[in-house]
Amino acid sequence: MKGPLICSLLVFGCLRAAEGELDRRLNLGATEIPRDFVVLPNATNAVQFRLFTNAASEARHLFNTFEIEAHGEILIGSPGGEPLRRSLRQSLAGGELHNILVNGKGPELANSNGLVVVEKASAPGWSYIGLDGSLAYRGLLKQFTRAILHVEPDLFIIRDHLVAGSPSSFQMRMHPPSATRVDAIWRDLRLELPRAGLRVHAPAIQKQPRHWERIDSLADGILENTVTVQLGATNALGEVNLLTVFATHRAGETRELAFRLLEGNNAIGARIHREGLPTLIAFRTGPADQTASLTGFEFGGPVGVSIFTPKKRPSAK
Fold first, then answer.
1. Which residues fall within 8 angstroms of residue 119, CB to CB, at 6 or more apart?
2. pTM (two decimals)
3. pLDDT tens-digit profile of 232-275?
4. Closest listed residue to residue 23, CA positions, set 8, 55, 45, 6
5. 112 — alpha (psi -120 to 50), left (phi > 0) or beta?
6. Nearest to 167 by CA among 75, 103, 84
7. DSSP H or E segment with residue 87
């Protein structure tokens, strides 16, 4: 589909809950300023992805970290509340708690450095938002953009585009629940909680970040019941296009999933098989005034999605 519709599923808002708590209802007016977080919900709000956009040091949650909630479980948590205050007092947030690190350093926390919404789009079955956080990484990066795509009902895909002035090391860190394990074969993350589960995979080309590992971190002594996991390249790079797929499921469900990175002249994306059925997702990397294409799939907006749905056979009379 060319020219995606303006997204109506995105929710912007400001945190007003007590310290360390999030307004679960997200009962926010449409005119409120997108100062603290953005949310990509699904049609029933059973699964939500919340990205925290406020870079002020007094923000309730750490800048550019995110939270995934599915079926009443927090599958990925964002540092916030008293643990975050304590880490800031101990000067740990500069590297230990942040989601994206460049040469071991996180973004600069300042009121003027928040994530800025630059793109929104949606169509039946998916919603998308693109943000720019280059100001927060000045001195480390020439450009940092983060895009989030939700493909209903269970997929969230993050595309991080990082451009450095010179070859640099890049890492993505998260602090999921302590029950999270690294799969011995696929080297992705697996989590099973009483009501929901999660798989985190990073399809990538050779020498780019792909394999997750569990690491020791000072954050483990601050955040309760979590572990620290890291995804990083083994060599210094000048530019990184990092795709991270988060696939949620209800507790007890066995999901058949497969992932393959795709690259073209003006797009990057992945083919994701769910129960054998392919979904193609593509993020534009070329000029906005040109039609983007990935493996023959053309799209006109910032992102394109093709969800294969088998045709129903006519019932026998």
1. 128, 129, 130, 147, 302
2. 0.86
3. 877 899 999 999 999 999 999 988 999 999 999 999 999 999 99
4. 45
5. alpha
6. 103
7. helix 81-89
